[in-house]
C-alpha cells in the first residue's frame, strides 16, 4: 500500500501547513490590543482576544507538529486548494471567538462577520456605534490579511519556492518575481506601503487617526468595513471621497500592474486589458447614471456626478463604501450597480467579482469570432491580450475555461437570488444584496442586518466564501479531498477485515 503511505504523508504535510496558518492567526488575534494604551477604558476586552489567541495557537501548534521539514515537497494545485479551503474555513470559525466570548454576536452572526472580514466583503451585522474599538480594529485586520491572502502570506515565508500550487489555489496569477516567497514579499510591501500612505493622507484630510487606519485598510483591501454608520458619507467631505476613490482604484488593480508602475513602465500599464476595460466601464456608466438616472434626484449636475462616481467606483472595485442610500435610486441605476458588482475588480488584486480580465477576454473572443467571418478561411490568426506580464497568446481552451467559470458564477448568482425571493424579499433588493455577497462588495439595500433570517445570513456566508476562493479551486479541491478520504477509509476497512 505504497500509495496509502504517500497519501498519509501528504495529508500530514497539509495539516502541518494549516497548523502554521493557525499559529499565525493566533498572533494576529493579539494585534487589536496594540491600541489599548490609547483606549485604556477597553482593557476588559483584552481577555477575549487573549483567550482566543491561546486556543488558536494551541490548535495550530498541535497540527503543525505533523509537518516534517525534511519531507516537504512541491504542492500541487489540488493540494494547495485543500490547504486554502481548510485554512479559510477554520480561520473564519476561530475568528468568531472574540465576538462570541464577549457576548456581542451569536454563532451565525459572528461567522457572518468574520467571513465578511476575511473575504473583504464588508457586509456587517455589528453595531459600530456600540462596538469597542478593539473589535472594530479586529474587523479591519481580518480584511487586511484577507485581501493579501492569509494562506499565501503565512505559509509562503516557510514553504518558499515550493508553494506555487498554494499560490494559484488562492486565486492568484500575479507571480511578480521568480518564486512565491519573493512575489508575496513584494505584494505585501506594495500593499502595506499603500495602507500607510492612505492612513497619513486621511489624517491630513481631517479624519481621526483611528478612523484613518480602519478606512485605509478597508479601502486598499476593497473590504468596506467602516467605523461610522453612514460609512464615508458621514464625513461629507469631497476631499475624503476623492482620496477614497483613488485608494479603491488602487485596491482593485492587479498587483502586477502596480509592479509595472513601480518600474515606470507606463505604456505597458495603458496597454493592459484590465486597465482599459476598467476605464471604459467607468467612462460609460458614470455619465449615463449621473445624467440619465440621478440628476432629477440630486438636483445639480455637480452633486449627481460626485455621488455617482463614488458609488459606481465602489461597486466595480468591490469595496463597498457608500455616501448615500439606494432606496430612492431609479431602477436603471440600481441595475447598473448590480452589473458592475458582478463584473468586479482585477485578477490578482484584493477585489472580488467575476473579474475584469474574464469579462475583457470574453468580449475579445466575441470580437475575434465576428472578425473571423470576414477573413479568408485559410488565414492563420494569433489572438492575444495584454496582461501585466506582457503579450499573452490566448488558446481556445483558455476561452472555454473562462466561459465555464462565468456560467458557474451566474448560475450560483441565480440560485442565491431565488433563495432571497423565497424568503419574500423583492426582486431588485434580492439581486442587489446577493450580488454584493457573491462578489464580496459589501453594499446593502437594507436586507443584511442582525435580525435577518438565519437562512439568508448563511446564504450570504456561502456566497462570500465562493466568491473569494473561486469555484474551480473549491470544486477540484473538494473532489480530491473526498476521493482521498474514501480511499483511506476503504483501505483501512480492507486492512481491518
From TrEMBL:
GO molecular function: monoatomic cation transmembrane transporter activity
Coiled coil: none
GO-annotated cellular components: plasma membrane
Record keywords: Cell membrane, Ion transport, Membrane, Transmembrane, Transmembrane helix, Transport
Matches recorded under InterPro entries: Cat_transpt
Membrane disposition: Multi-pass membrane protein
Keyword Ribosomal protein among record annotations: no
Name assigned to this protein: Cation transporter
Native source organism of the sequence: Clostridium formicaceticum
Amino acid at each position: 500500500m505504497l500509495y496509502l503511505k504517500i497519501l498519509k504523508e501528504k495529508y500530514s504535510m497539509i495539516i502541518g501547513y494549516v497548523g502554521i496558518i493557525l499559529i499565525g492567526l493566533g498572533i494576529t488575534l493579539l494585534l487589536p490590543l496594540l491600541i489599548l494604551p490609547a483606549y485604556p477604558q477597553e482593557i476588559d476586552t483584552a481577555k477575549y482576544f487573549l483567550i482566543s489567541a491561546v486556543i488558536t495557537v494551541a490548535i495550530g501548534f498541535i497540527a503543525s507538529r505533523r509537518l516534517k521539514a525534511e519531507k516537504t515537497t512541491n504542492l500541487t494545485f489540488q493540494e494547495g486548494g485543500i490547504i486554502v479551503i481548510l485554512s479559510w474555513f477554520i480561520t473564519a470559525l476561530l475568528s468568531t471567538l472574540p465576538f462570541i466570548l464577549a457576548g456581542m454576536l451569536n454563532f451565525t452572526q459572528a461567522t457572518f462577520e468574520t467571513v465578511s472580514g476575511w473575504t473583504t466583503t464588508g457586509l456587517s451585522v455589528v453595531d459600530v456605534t456600540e462596538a469597542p474599538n478593539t473589535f472594530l480594529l479586529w474587523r479591519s485586520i481580518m480584511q487586511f490579511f484577507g485581501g493579501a491572502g492569509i494562506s499565501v502570506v503565512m505559509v509562503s515565508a516557510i514553504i518558499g519556492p515550493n508553494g506555487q500550487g498554494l499560490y494559484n489555489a488562492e486565486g492568484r496569477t500575479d507571480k511578480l518575481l521568480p518564486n512565491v516567497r519573493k512575489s508575496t514579499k513584494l505584494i505585501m510591501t506594495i500593499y502595506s506601503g499603500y495602507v500607510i500612505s492612505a492612513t497619513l493622507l486621511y489624517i491630513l484630510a481631517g479624519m481621526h487617526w483611528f478612523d484613518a487606519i480602519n478606512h485605509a485598510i478597508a479601502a486598499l483591501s476593497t473590504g468596506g468595513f467602516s467605523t461610522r454608520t453612514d460609512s464615508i458619507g458621514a464625513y461629507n467631505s469631497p476631499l475624503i471621497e476623492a482620496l477614497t476613490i483613488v485608494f479603491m482604484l488602487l485596491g482593485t488593480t492587479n498587483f502586477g500592474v502596480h509592479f509595472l508602475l513601480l518600474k515606470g513602465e507606463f505604456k505597458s500599464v495603458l496597454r493592459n486589458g484590465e486597465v482599459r476595460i476598467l476605464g471604459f466601464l467607468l467612462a460609460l456608466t458614470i455619465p449615463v447614471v449621473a445624467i440619465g438616472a440621478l440628476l432629477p434626484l440630486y438636483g445639480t449636475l455637480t452633486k449627481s456626478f460626485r455621488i455617482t462616481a463614488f458609488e459606481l467606483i465602489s461597486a466595480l472595485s468591490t469595496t463597498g463604501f457608500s455616501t448615500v442610500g439606494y432606496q430612492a435610486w431609479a431602477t436603471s441605476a440600481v441595475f447598473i450597480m448590480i452589473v458592475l458588482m458582478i463584473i468586479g475588480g482585477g485578477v490578482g488584486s484584493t477585489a472580488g467579482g467575476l473579474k475584469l480580465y474574464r469579462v475583457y477576454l470574453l468580449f475579445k473572443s466575441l470580437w475575434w469570432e465576428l472578425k473571423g467571418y470576414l477573413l479568408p478561411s485559410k488565414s492563420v490568426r494569433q489572438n492575444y491580450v495584454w496582461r501585466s506580464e506582457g503579450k499573452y497568446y490566448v488558446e481556445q481552451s483558455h476561452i472555454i475555461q473562462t466561459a465555464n467559470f462565468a456560467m458557474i458564477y451566474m448560475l450560483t448568482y441565480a440560485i442565491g437570488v431565488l433563495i432571497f425571493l423565497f424568503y419574500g424579499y423583492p426582486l431588485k433588493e434580492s439581486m442587489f444584496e446577493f450580488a454584493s455577497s457573491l462578489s464580496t462588495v459589501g453594499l446593502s439595500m437594507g436586507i443584511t442586518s442582525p435580525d435577518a433570517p438565519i437562512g439568508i445570513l448563511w446564504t450570504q456566508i456561502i456566497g462570500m466564501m465562493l466568491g473569494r476562493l473561486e469555484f474551480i479551486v473549491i470544486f477540484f479541491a473538494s473532489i480530491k479531498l473526498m476521493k482521498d478520504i474514501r480511499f483511506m477509509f476503504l483501505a483501512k476497512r480492507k486492512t481491518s477485515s
